[in-house]
Amino acid sequence: MNSKNEDCIFCNIVRKEIPAREVLRDEHVVAFHDLNPQAPTHVLVVPNLHAQNLSEFIAKASAAMKARLFAAAAEVGKRFERERKGFRVVINEGADGGQTVGHLHLHVLAGRHMQWPPG
Ligand code: AMP
Ligand code: ZN
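Predict the joint structure of the above. Result:
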């Protein structure tokens, strides 16, 4: 799957050009631990295709990749949740959404009770 953005940190992880603590990898997605975890488990799930955000991903990814991204987030959540107590999946988009890395990623947070509403 093409991921050609040389300056993109998550494309570099997809291509194994920089290290990450990976928990899952296949032809559509890579999942790895966040460097600055906000919960006992904080994993990022990224598509192997470079897309700036959710909106761009929906416009350009295949149906198979779209399905796999969400299935992978659920798999990671189920793997790391405490005794079926659940987990949270978050997507930030743009400045108001709090996005800091311009390659779509799903945050999977688990291992503690989450507050609502988010900040
Ligand atoms: P967001 O603010 O939604 O764009 O989330 C970006 C996330 O990427 C943050 O939680 C960062 O801690 C995380 N992050 C940035 N660089 C890396 C990296 N090289 N490896 C793992 N996580 C990273
Ligand atoms: Zn990228």
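The domain at 9-110 is CATH 3.30.428.10 (HIT family, subunit A).
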